[in-house]
Amino acid sequence: MRVAGVMSGTSLDGIDVAIVDIRGHRIKTVAFNSSPYPESVRQEILSVSNATTTTASIARLHFLLGELYAAAIIAACRRHRIALHGIELVGCHGQTIYHQGEPEPYLGCSIATTLQIGEAGVIAERIAAPVISDFRTRDVAAGGKGAPLVPYVDYLLFRHQRLGRVALNIGGIANVTALPPGASSSQVIAFDTGPGNMIIDGLATEVTRGREHFDRDGRIAARGRPASQLLDRLLADPYYRRKPPKTAGREQYGAKFIGLMKRSGLGLRDLMATATAFTAVTIAVGVERFIKPRMPVDELIVSGGGVHNRTMMGYLSSFLPSVRITTSEEFGVGVDAKEGVAFALLAYETWCGRAANLPSATGAHRPVILGKITQ
């Protein structure tokens, strides 16, 4: 089956489309394309994320994103000369505008909350293929945090009989999937370690007044020095001591967090260096504190936009000196395409009627079939 996986993450850098051929659990990436968000759309998403807004704004954006996702699939097909009618299924994560993975009391209930927008009906109409969307809610309903969901795919792609591997994705948020040697799915450990590129991107946008949205190759951070006192203060957050399963999002590392860092009085270079080191050290803390006591860690397999940040990758190597660090490219999965590929495979599992959450990763009471089908 040929499946298009669509992912737009918390970094808001654009819409990634991976077109994948799936035969059983054999996966071949046929094409990958990324379509940047128009700046006006990016700002509108930010305005409704973890913010007081109007239902009209969310509703309009919900349908607009459906159109943009469909257009991104069409663009990927055109760029790689793939027939649109050959797309048999679409898996679309949608754009997260709110995620509170920890249950909170509300009207006599204890509920976790998640909301992804991007109307699947629009995509199905434009692409003329069934769409699987809204992957997180069923896991939440089953007592889980609705994240992380990619560990199921990491388990299929990267587990090894003799080696202990950790799959790390550095998107807006950084998350890890720990795969003990010869692991069964119930033995997988997975959680969000904390920020990925989100703080770095936010600082770049703020300080350059929108001229830049990220630190290309980590060049700005490379010219600065991490501020140890600020790092210590940031690491005092109880999140980094909380046992998995756990999940993080923009509500933790958004505008309020950026404001806290700017109030430190550091210059741009030192701010970037501190934010970059903070992402790397929280990843290392997660590995050292929650993974190494339970399994050997032989390899760290990195994907996501953070791979392109040389300064961050350098920090990772220094914080985890005994671990071989490589990327998903070594395993035939592009570092930028990884999450698009993941949601293509998750959609395929749903279409086949198979559960694809890992309760050991999300905290759900049981495995469930993810997503909603729009035909």
Summary, kept brief:
By secondary structure, the protein is α/β, with parallel strands linked by helices. It has helices at 39-48, 55-79, 120-127, 136-141, 151-158, 198-207, 219-222, 228-235, 250-253, 255-262, 268-291, 310-319, 338-351, 359-362, and strands at residues 2-7, 15-23, 26-35, 89-92, 95-106, 109-117, 131-133, 165-170, 173-179, 189-195, 299-303, 324-327, 372-374.
Describe the structure in your own words.
There is one protein chain. It is built from 14 helices and 13 strands. It has helices spanning 39-48, 55-79, 120-127, 136-141, 151-158, 198-207, 219-222, 228-235, 250-253, 255-262, 268-291, 310-319, 338-351, 359-362, and strands at 2-7, 15-23, 26-35, 89-92, 95-106, 109-117, 131-133, 165-170, 173-179, 189-195, 299-303, 324-327, 372-374. A hairpin with a 7-residue loop joins strand 1 and strand 2. The protein is α/β, with parallel strands linked by helices. Helix 6 (198-207) packs across helix 10 (255-262) and helix 8 crosses helix 11 (268-291).
Biggest sheet strand line-up: 3-2-1-4-7-13
Query: What CATH architecture label of the largest domain applies?
Result: 2-Layer Sandwich
**Largest sheet, strands/sense/barrel:** 6 strands, mixed
Q: How many domain units? A: 2
Mean pLDDT: 93
Distance between the termini: 16 Å
* Number of discrete helical segments: 14
Low-confidence stretches: none
Q: Roughly how many Å is the radius of gyration?
A: 20 Å
- Give the beta-strand count: 13
Main CATH class of the largest domain? Alpha Beta
CATH superfamily of the largest domain: ATPase, nucleotide binding domain
CATH third-tier fold name of the largest domain: Nucleotidyltransferase, domain 5
Please indicate the percent range of residues in DSSP E strands (runs of 2 or more).
15-25%
The class by helix and strand makeup works out as alpha/beta
**What best-fitting shape do the alpha-carbon axes yield?**
globular
> Helical content, roughly?
25-40%
Q: Please write the string of helix (H) and strand (E) elements.
A: EEEHHEEEHEHHEEEHHHHHHEHEHHE
